[in-house]
Amino acid sequence: MIDKKKNAKAYWKENLRLLLLLLSIWFLVSYGAGILFRETLDNIQIGGFKLGFWFAQQGSIYIFVILIFVYVKKMNKLDKKYNFDE
After folding, report:
1. Contact 84/11 with Cβ under 8 angstroms?
2. φ, ψ at 43 (rounded to 5°)
C-alpha cells in the first residue's frame, strides 16, 4: 500500500512538472512573443506579415496545438512508467 502511494505521489509530481513546463512555454509564446517582444519581432517578416503580429494572431495557437500533442505523448510515457496505462 505504501508503494502505491509513493508511486502515485511521484507520478503526480512529474505530471505537474510537465504541465507547468508546457504552460510556461505557451505563456512565453503567447504573451511574450505576441505582446512583450512584439516590437523586436516585427523587424522580421513571414509571408509579408510582421512576426510579432503573426505570433499574436496565429503562432500562439499553433504552438498550443503542438503542446497538446507533446503533452499526450509525454503523458503516455509517464503512464507506462508508473503502470497507470490501460
Report:
1. yes
2. -70, -15
pLDDT in tens, 7-22: 889 999 999 999 999 9
pLDDT in tens, 57-80: 788 888 899 999 999 999 999 999
Per-position b or e across 37-68, b if 16+ CB within 10 A of its CB: ebeebeeeeeeeebbbbbbbeebbeebeeebe
DSSP H helices in 1-86: 2-27, 38-41, 51-54, 60-81
Query: Measuring CA to CA, how many Å separate 21 from each of 2, 15, 18, 27, 71?
Result: 29, 10, 5, 10, 10
Name beta bridge partners: 50.
45
Q: Average pLDDT of 23-38? A: 85
The pTM score is 0.78
Instruction: Name, in order, each residue with C-beta under 8 angstroms of 28's C-beta and a sequence gap of 6 or more.
Output: none
